[in-house]
Amino acid sequence: MFDFSAKTAKILLRTSRNFFLRNKPFFAHLHVTKRCNLRCKYCGVREKVIPKELSKEGFIRIIDILDRMGVVQISFTGGEPLLNPDIFDLIEYANKRGFWTQITSNGTMPQHMYKRLLDTKINLISISLDSLKREVHNAQRGHFDTVMKNLKFLAKNKAKGQNINISTMVTEKNIKELPEIVSFAKSLGVNIFLSPVMYSHYSDDYGFRPRGDGYLNSEDVKKTYSLLKRQYFSSGMMTPPYYLRLSEKYLISQKNKWNCKAGLVFFDIMPDGEFYICQDFSMEKNILDKDFLEWYGSKEFHEKRKRLAHKCEGCVFSCYYCTQNMFGPRVFETALTFFKNFITTL
Questions:
Q1: What DSSP designation does 52 have?
Q2: What residues make up the domain containing 210?
Q3: Which of 24, 53, 178, 301 has minimal CB crowding within 10 Å?
Q4: Does the residue 1 lie in any domain?
């Protein structure tokens, strides 16, 4: 039976609010570290300066501030977030404060850490898997056998109400394999989200590859996404139909300029507390500053946010695009995806 707890009530109340007040903060990426044990082919995070990480007390203060801002969902991310020794305490604290909590891990940590992660009662654990072929996954990320072992462990041991998700980065290396990966997720009893490899001219950490490099064959893209759309209702695909359509276009054109509300509906907090409207643009302000909440609602903030957003050349980061579209004209497709995948966990 579904336990209608105080946390559930808080999440539903704040989510309902965003249908009417669409610029209210809803989703926050909390980067608890930029350290990572991998060198994925499309990520330069390890090549950049690693910012200082706050203490556990500092991150707890941030979680309290996010609560005061009205945030609903906290995504613990990195780097590899499980490299922060305080991560389990932070997730448990966020749960107690009534947040929907999720984490993205590369799946390579010791298995006892994933057992501990399940014990925190986190809502969603996302594990990166780019291929069912060892050589393909290892060429892009590495440690295929460890990832598969941990993924199967999580699928078998998750509690009722917890969701395990496969996160797959779509590239020219695995484009034809996507329907098979979706079927694998269904056989394992987990969800799956498919995200296109990103192209950028400006990104410090997340410019996965230069724009103009690595175009996918348009016929391969069209054929694969046609098959994926047919799998939507019969699989645990968390990718909403509108995002599938967008991904198909983006993988061919490498372009998507949209009316992004970065800094309003969603934003990122770096390991040292620096506030970014998204993972690419810093506001040069720390969320732990005494005047942060006052500044966040000021004319100065909104004008600077608009200037930065105007510089953006566009993206299809799912955490941003899907969060914003949850409360717009595509709400039905979002709701359909949610209930299709999560009703069995209630």
A1: P
A2: 6-345
A3: 24
A4: no
